């Protein structure tokens, strides 16, 4: 039997389905436990703690594999409705165990290719995503408490050639804000459509820099960071102006694709 191992970031609490917690002597023992559970519980991931000598086994959810699809390199304008009654709309399909609003939006974005989604009703508390389609004038949808309705308007390509060699986006926890953010680490040095909001000096870690951006994502429209030599540059999109940004080879450039409250 040949086993290939791939090291990934240990992110949000529901990025995988936890199978069990085991006391183990070493990492090899942890791997053997996962292999033993492979057929019965579909174990395909583990987290081994060298300090505690424990092994946490997972069944990783396929939806977090985040395939490098062209749809993942698009940007959509999303409108949030404050009403609890949505006219001229009919419910489509229900998707359970959808931990993030952004995942629900991505489902709708894909279904729009077949004209099967106009908007979504999403509840983070229930982790339920409901797609909706256009109805007639007599149709309407009543939203239960905790549900929010969003419509997808303009979706367009977003620097797909510039991002084609980037690794797949990753989910990272920002403990201070109690948020989970999906991050895309950029490989190119020549970047377009970004403008510096401000520079935060004496920033010692990448996590601190990311937290600075996420904290002002709504108020200052921060959506990316440029981190080098303990300097943290917060950046915003410049979609209507041709602006270019050349970063140093030793730097880190990260786009924050979305941030949402951490999963409980």
TrEMBL record:
<protein>
    <recommendedName>
        <fullName>Apple domain-containing protein</fullName>
    </recommendedName>
</protein>
């Amino acid at each position: 039997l040949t086993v290939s191992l791939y090291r990934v970031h240990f992110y949000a609490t529901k990025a995988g389905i936890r199978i069990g917690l085991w006391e183990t002597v070493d990492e090899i023992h942890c791997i053997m436990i996962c292999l033993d559970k492979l057929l019965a519980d579909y174990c395909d991931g583990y987290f081994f703690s060298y300090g505690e000598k424990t092994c946490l086994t997972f069944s990783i959810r396929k939806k977090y594999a985040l395939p490098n699809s062209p749809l993942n390199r698009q940007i959509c304008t999303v409108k949030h409705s404050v009403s609890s009654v949505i006219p001229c709309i009919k419910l489509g399909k229900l998707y359970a165990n959808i931990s993030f609003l952004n995942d629900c939006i991505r489902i709708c974005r894909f279904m729009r290719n077949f004209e099967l989604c106009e908007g979504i009703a999403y509840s983070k508390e229930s982790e339920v995503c409901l797609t909706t389609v256009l109805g007639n004038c007599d149709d309407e949808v009543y939203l239960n408490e905790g549900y929010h309705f969003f419509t997808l308007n303009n979706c367009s390509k977003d620097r797909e050639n510039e991002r084609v060699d980037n690794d797949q986006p990753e989910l990272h926890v920002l403990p201070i804000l109690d948020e989970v953010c999906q991050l895309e680490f950029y490989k190119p040095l020549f970047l377009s459509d970004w403008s510096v909001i401000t520079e935060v000096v004496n920033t010692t870690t990448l996590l601190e820099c990311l937290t600075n951006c996420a904290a002002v994502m709504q108020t200052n429209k921060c959506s990316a960071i440029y981190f080098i030599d303990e300097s943290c540059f917060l950046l915003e999109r410049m979609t209507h102006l041709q602006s270019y940004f050349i970063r140093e080879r030793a730097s880190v450039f990260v786009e924050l694709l979305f941030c949402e409250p951490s999963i409980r």
